[in-house]
Amino acid sequence: MTTLSWNCQGIGPPWKVRFLKDVISQERPNFVFLCETICKKEKMEFLRVKLGFEGMVVVEPQGRSGGLAFLWREKEQVNLLGLSQHHIDVGVSVEGLGEWRITGIFDRYWSSRYGFNRPPIYMGEGKG
């Protein structure tokens, strides 16, 4: 299973779409999480088709900030568990690998409150 996460800071410019398409063709991820898309659902739907993904969950931006998208391939099974302006939470089933939970997060809370300037890695126990 391969995942890709990118804070694209606006996916509108054609060069960013080309860059993302190139990365996806090289890495062939099962799942892609995009944050700070600053794009409406209609534009993201066009992008989903262009990138060759079967499914997608979108959280639209608020004004000129935010926006999230989680995309997946045809063979993957995805169940939406929850979403907000700051996250998309899904359960996924991947053939040969079983069931997993993937949560894509975009949150400036920690960086603004505590001065963190590096991306976080979240760890924990997945039991029950």
Automatic annotation (TrEMBL):
InterPro entries: Endo/exonu/phosph_ase_sf (IPR036691). It comes from the Eukaryota. This is Endonuclease/exonuclease/phosphatase domain-containing protein. It comes from Heracleum sosnowskyi. The lineage of its organism: Eukaryota, Viridiplantae, Streptophyta, Embryophyta, Tracheophyta.
